[in-house]
What does this fold into?
Amino acid sequence: MRDHYIERANANANSTFVGPARRFTRWDYFSIAFSSLVFVALVCAFLANRFNGLPYVPDFADLGLILAPPGTPQHLLGTDFFGRDLATRLIASVDAYFLPALSAVALSVLLGTLLGLVAGMRGGWSALLARYVCTLVEASPRLLLILFAVTLYQPDIFHIMLIVGLTGFPALATQLQLRIRTLREQSFFDAALASGVSLPRVFITNLLWHHCRPLFLIHASQAMGEAILIETSLSYLGFGVQEPTPSWGNMVQTGSDYLLQGNFWPSTLPALAIAISLLAFYLFADVYERRSREQSRA
Amino acid sequence: MSTPLLTVTELVKSHLPNTRYWSRWNIRTAGRPALDRVSFSIMPGEILGLVGESGSGKTTVGRLVTKLTPSDAGSIWFDGHDITHMPERAFRPLRRHVQMIFQDLDGALNPNMTVRAILREMLKQNFKHTNGETIQTQLNDLLDNVNFPQSKLDVTPLQLSGGEKRRVSIARALACKPQLVIADELTTALDLPIQAQIANLLLDLRDKLGVSFLFISHDLPLVEFISDRIAVMYAGRVVETGSAVVLAQQPRHPYTRLLWNAHAGAVVKEELAATLFADIAQSGCAFAPRCPIFKAKGEPSRCTDPQTEPTLKLIEVRHQVACHFPL
Amino acid sequence: MIGKPHLEIEDLHAYFYSQQHGAFVRSVAGVNLCIRRGETLALIGESGSGKSVTALSALGLLRGSPGVVRGHIRLHTDKGPIELLAGLDRYVDYELDARGSLRISKEISAWERQSRKNFRDIHGKEIASVFQNPRAAFNPYLMVGAQIMENIRLHTPTKLHHEAYDQALFWLESVGLEPAAERFENFPYGLSGGMCQRAMLAMTLAAEPKLVIADEPTTGLDATLRTAMLELLMQMQRNLGFSLLIISHDLQVVRELSQRVAVFYNGVVIEYAPSQTIHNEYDAPRHPYTQALLDAQPVRLSPKPRKLIALRGEIPSPIGEPKGCRFAPRCNRARGTMAKRCENESPPFFSPEPKHAIACWLFANSPEAHAEEIA
It folds into this structure.
C-alpha cells in the first residue's frame, strides 16, 4: 500500500494557520450527523407528546383496521393487533422513558463526579473507599437488583431508573479519579494553586472543565443508551412500562406474537427504533472518545 | 539599607514530598533531610541565583517558599509577614506576591486551555473587581512585557515552541503583579539564542517592574551572569552565599570551587571521579567525603563531628561560608 | 587510521507531512556529512534544525510520514562499504508538478521492511547510540548487568554465560562503576542519574561498535557530572578508537569532544568548521548564525555587561522551499546592499580557510569549497 503526500501549492511558513488541530474523518462527520438527527427526533417526539402533537390518541383502537400493513393511507406505519396506530405509539413511547432515562443519567453523572472528585482530590483512604464502593456496585447484577425492587414495590419506570442511576456511576467515578490523579501530578496544577486560585476552583475550572468535559459527554451518552436498553428489556419481560401505556419494549413483546403469522411490523418497527436510538447514542460516545484520545495524544 | 523582601532562616524539610518510588532507593539521598537549616534572604529588586547539583533541594526551597509544601521547622518571612505557619486562608492575599515558574516546559501550562484562557484566569483571579476592558488592557501589557505575539493568543500550549511556552509561563506569573518570582530551571532545555532572550527578558522585567527573582538553575555561567548574589546548595544545605562576581571568581567553599572548575574543565581528576559516588556524610559536614581540604588536613574530627557541623559564617562583607577551613 | 571515511551521508532528504498545513516540513533538506575513522564530529544547532533527524536516519530509526525521501548513507565496515539506504528508492516516488507543488508517494511498510533488512547486522554492532535519557534505555525490571550481558551475547562472539558475565564486569569497571559485581546487580532505579548514564555507556560500548552516535549525552546533568562524563567519553574513545557523532547544543561539550563541527540551521548545514573555531576567544571567519550562537553564551567580562546578545526571533518552521539564504530573515548582516542577494539567492559553500566551509554570501570573495572538502 502506498501513502500519498501532496503539497499544497504556495504553502509556506509565513501563511501558517495556527489553530486547534481538528481531525474529523468522514465517518466521524457521518456519526455526528446521524446521532444529532436522532437526538432532534427524540426531542421532537417528547415535545409532541407534551403539546398534543400526536396524530392519534395512542390507545385509540381502529377495530376496522387491525394489523394494517405499513403504507395504509390513514396509518403510515400500519396498525397493531388492536388497530392502534403504530406511528403514534412509537412516538408516545418516547414519553415513557425520556424523562426517567435523563434523570437516571443525571443521577449517575452527579454521583460519579462527586465520588471521583473526592477520591481524586483527597487520595488515601477516601480513594480506597471509593474504589471499594465502585467495585461493589459494579459487581452487583443490575437486572436482578431491578427485578428485586420491582417485586418489592410495583413496576414503575421511575423506580427502575432510580436504580439504573444509582448503579451507573462507577465507570465515571473510576475514570474521573484516575484522570484527576494523573493531572494533579503535573505542575500546572501547582502553578494555579501558587497563584492564589482556591483548591475547589482549580479542580472545577482547570481539571473538570478543561480536561474532563469529553468524559462527561461520553459517559452521559453511553448511560443514556444503557438506560434505554434496560428499560426496553424490562418492558419486554413485562416488568417495565405496563400495557396499555406504549413503550418500545412492550410493543416488541406484544407484537412478537404476530411475527410468525407474517405480520412483522408491530414488533420490528419498535425494535428498529430501539436499535437506531441506541446506535445514535453509542456512535456519539464513540466519536467523542476517539477525539479526546487523539487530543490528549497530540 | 532596605529590609529584605524574603528571609528564610533555618528551614528544615525532613523528607521530600511525593517521592517517586525509585528515589527512595536513591543511594545518595537516602536517610537524609531534603533541606537542612537553609537560610538566605532576597532584597527587593534583587536576583538571587540558587545553584547546586540535582537532588540538592533547590526546587524544594521554591516549593516551601510558595507554601505548596509545608515546612517542618524554621521560618519564612515575606514582606514583613511571618508566613511559616500562616493558614492558607490568611496567606491567600499574599500569594499573588510570591509566584513560581515551574521547571517542566510542558506540564507547567494546562494543555487544554488556550493562552488567553490561562492568562485571563490569572488576571481575573487577582484583580477581582475589574471590568473586562481593564483585563484586556492588562493582558496586552502582559504580552508586551514578555514579547509574546498577539496572534498566538488563541492557541493551546502544545502548539507553541519552547521559548514561547516559557514566555507564557513568565506572563502567567507576572499576571499577579508579584514582588518575588521563583524561576525554577527557566532556561534548561532551551536553545542558546532563546536562552539568551529569556535571560534578557528577566533582566528587563527586573529593571522595569522591580520584581525580585530567585533564579534556580544549574547552568553556572548563566547564573553568574544574571544574578546579583548566588547561594550554593549541597545536599540540602546552603554552603556559600555571596555576590555573584566574587563567589564565582574567588570561591571560599571547596564545593563552590569544584562546581566552577568543573564547568571550566579545570578540575583535578580524583576530585571529579569522587562526584560519581559522592557519599553524603551522615554527620558533620556533608561535603567532607569529597573534600580535598578534609583529606589534606588529615581528616580532622571537626568536620565529621555532628556537634561541630559547619554553619554559615560571615567571613567577608556579604559573603558567608559554611566551612571550617575556607579557602 | 584517521582520514579514511567511516560514515558518509550524501544529499539526505527527510520530510514530514503536516496535515494541518498541507505541506512538507523539510526537516532535513540535502545534508552532506562525512565522519572519518576515529574522529569525532559534532552537530550543533537549535532544536528542530534537523540534527537529530539526521542521526536517526543514520541509525535506521526514523519513522514517520514520509520520513527519509532520498539520499545515500554509506557505511565503511571492515568488509567493505555498505549502502544503508540500498534498494529503498524504488519505494519512493518524488515529483514536482507544473504548479510547483511537490508530490511524494511512499510504500511505508515495504520501505521499513527493506530498511530493517539493511540495518539488521549494523545496528548495535557497527553503529550504536547513546541517548539523552539513560533510564529510558534500560528495562526497569532487569538488573543493569544482565542487560549489558545480553548485549554482549547478542553482538559479540562471546556467547558463553560466564564469559559474558566477566565481560560485563569489565565494562562496568571501565566506565568507573565500582565495585562492578555489586553494580551488576543494581536495578536502573537504584542508580543515580550520573551512574545510570555510565551504565548505559557501558551497555552501548559492550557491543564493541565502530561508530557511536550520542544524542545530547550531557543534557540534564549538572556541571560536575557533565565534566566527568565528557572525560569518560574521551578516555573510552582513546582506548577503543571508535568514531563518534555527537549532537549537542552545549558549545562547550562540542569544543572539548570533537575535532570538527557541522552547524545546522533549519534543515541544512550552513557551516563545516574545525571545532577550535567554535570559541569566543578565537578570531575566525564564521557564519553569522554561528556567531550568534557564540554571542548568546554568557561570558565573564568586567564590568559585567547589562544584557546578553540575543538573536532575534525563533527558529522558523521549515515549511516550504525558501528562496534565498534560510537565515536571512534573522540575520543582522543581510542588510543594505547584501539584502537583495541574501533574500533571493541560496549561498553555496565558500572556503575562507582550509577545512572550513561556510554557506554565506559574506565570504563570496573566498574560493568556493570543493565537494569532497565540504563534508
